[in-house]
């Protein structure tokens, strides 16, 4: 139901993910991120928000299995969300996919159905991704192969074997970054806002590279 306000979200549920149908891919999610869009939908303010739904729109994973007709991917491939067909996804300026937009906006696969079931009830997909599920199902045009070492890098980072902050640090504290973002959102400025290179999109945050890496890019 659209515009429904969720007062309490379930942190963990057992979800059944049906096998992929023709031109679909089942993926084991290795890494995911929480986006403001997830929170926006969860708040009930999203006009396209429908429930119950498995959120998550940013992630990376490994192909578990593929449906009939899938030729560009195979089990074991490392993938990320990305359409390789529509004019928007092929344009370097945007990847707001329109290829399967109609069904995707309804939380469904291209055939108009869902692959998620929880406690006997159908759960909806989210933006064609649903990366908060351990396993997810997506249309085959909605994924692209990524660097094979991504899962290993994520695992080593989470286990602190790779310490990114030893190489790159923000020139501003997160409190300063958040303050600058709030001021930009309100149409104001401060000494911190000049270090943010895009309004509301925050295209990038200015970074400082430590002296031990003088040739690294900033």
From TrEMBL:
Pfam family, one: ADH_N
Domain of life: Eukaryota
Gene3D superfamilies according to UniProt: Medium-chain alcohol dehydrogenases, catalytic domain
GO molecular function, one term: zinc ion binding
Keyword ATP-binding found: no
One GO biological process term: formaldehyde catabolic process
InterPro entries to which the protein is assigned, alphabetical: ADH-like_N, GroES-like_sf
Keywords attached to this entry: Metal-binding, Zinc
Domain Alcohol dehydrogenase-like N-terminal: 22-138
Keyword hit for Metal-binding: yes
A cellular component term, taken from the record's GO annotations: cytosol
Record text on subunit structure and interactions: Homodimer.
Descriptive protein name: (raccoon dog) hypothetical protein
Species this protein is from: Nyctereutes procyonoides
